[in-house]
Amino acid sequence: MNKFKSTITPYLFIGPALILLLIFSFAPILVALAISFTDMNLSGLANWSQIHFIGLENFIKLFHDETFRQAMLNTLIYVVIGVPSAVISSFVIALLLNFFSNWVSSTFRVIFYVPSITNIVAIAVVWMFLYNQEYGLFNYLLSLIDVDAVPWLEDPLVAKLSLILIAVWKSNGISMLIFLAALQTIPRMYYEAADIDGANRFQKLTKITLPSMSFATFFVTVTTLIGWLQFFEEPFVITDGGPLNGTNSIALFIYQEGFQYSEFGYGAAASFVLFALIIVATLVQFKFRKTD
Amino acid sequence: MTAMQLKNNFEKTIVIALLFVGGILVSLPFIWMILSSLKTDKEVLSIPPTLFPQDPTFQHYIELFQNLNFDVYLVNTLIIVFFSMFGLLFNTMAGYGFGKFQFRFKETWFIIVLITMMIPGQVTMIPTYLILNEMELTNTMAGIILPGLIAAFNIFLIRQFMVTIPDDLIEAAKLDGAGQFYIFFKLILPLSKPILAVQAILTFIAAWNSFLWPLIIANDQSLYTLSVGLALLQDENVTNYGLQMAGSAFMVIPIVIIFLIFQKYIVEGFNVSGIK
């Protein structure tokens, strides 16, 4: 009896979490893979005999789909502009905060972190007001210095940049904390030794600070990149992919196919394209790190 | 102590000024939100805009609750927050299980946990909906809550912490005749306070902000969360910015207050979690 009890105990601890995880996280991966090779849609949901195996047809169709190609291009632009902006700005904030170890550091740390804990819908609503062409604060401030009204969310290209600004603003907090934690682990001796050698501040930054933080930078860059490849909430809540599909992203495309048009098979296929992109991007970064 | 030092007061002033300007810019949306939420309908749209409300009013906040069901959305959101804490308990139990027990296929199970961590949410979104649909849980509170209860990343972080608890401590308790669950609740949980504090706050924030999943699963307005309700409000009152700002402020301010009270645990938590 006692033997039985001791074999079963670990499963009592991991059991509840594992069951939920198997049903709602692990099984869905397999289901997604399976339905991406079928034509499953709303009628298939009601009647399973309506579902047909169609092989790679969804994937072939995707790459001929003008909307999907535009979403891929937009996602690429989001990544190319968003990742460096997000990593550099959070790094600069961490660097400035690290000059202090008193109330200045703790107060501003909180201020810069707050956007990342707040609700995306609430944030979207506020920014849409700020961006409003007629009543928005931004265009009013620009009018004070005689700049014409900017079509923040009305022009496909400007709208992309407007969304990037919001996302960078929102994501800075967490990366900043990781950078700050890394900065604080650099031994002071290094800087003191550099001082004795007469190194200037730029030399200290490039020769001591940056190399000591290579892991934190790598970690932040990888997670930021994965996040931007999945860019979804801002275009979803603020522009719904518009204008003229100009802010649509791959993730939003998946949502639209799955939940607006109920094309489950097609949407699932798109999700595997996204998954593949994420894996490739991550592997490339690991490769780069090795060659460093 | 800081690593790189500023040489004199002049440099110090410049850096503080930079931080101050940056801080104002970052907080600007929140400041504008709160000030606008207190303005009358007419003043919100006035050109040139006013900074401070000339005639502060709480009419928008009152309207949210009197006419716009925000009381229902608030209750739903709090239900989700409440159940998310059970999820945290399950995560903690699993983290302890993986950290402190030896059992068959432990590695395999743990790899499954890690795999689910690497899958983007958009991949599992559609099938999770289909699975819940088969279970007839769409448009129910259970359907909203269940998929989000367990987070592999949290299990992973908690496991990392559990590994650092000395085995001798658990052995000693066993010799004293304590059962496994007694040990877990009376010994392990109190020891895990630092990691649990940060997990609890992050779980609270995530549950309070939950938006996409409730939106997908709930068709019925009586199941909407605050953020889904706010999105609806925004669709239906496109130009009533005062009302929208009040709704946003109602979502943002509680979370900021909770964060301000507990933020030092989050910062410490990043260090105990080993992400450096």
Automatic annotation (TrEMBL), chain A:
Annotated ABC transmembrane type-1 domain residues: 72-285
Transmembrane segments: 12-35, 76-98, 110-130, 161-183, 210-231, 264-286
Topology class, membrane: Multi-pass membrane protein
Cellular component terms (Gene Ontology): plasma membrane
Primary site of residence: membrane
InterPro entries registered for this protein in UniProt: ABC_transporter_permease (IPR051393), MetI-like (IPR000515), MetI-like_sf (IPR035906)
Keywords: Cell membrane, Membrane, Transmembrane, Transmembrane helix, Transport
Compartment(s): Cell membrane
GO biological process, one term: transmembrane transport
CDD domains the record matches: TM_PBP2
Record PANTHER family: ABC TRANSPORTER PERMEASE PROTEIN, INNER MEMBRANE ABC TRANSPORTER PERMEASE PROTEIN YCJO
Entry similarity comment: Belongs to the binding-protein-dependent transport system permease family.
UniProt name for this protein: Sugar ABC transporter permease
Native source organism of the sequence: Virgibacillus necropolis
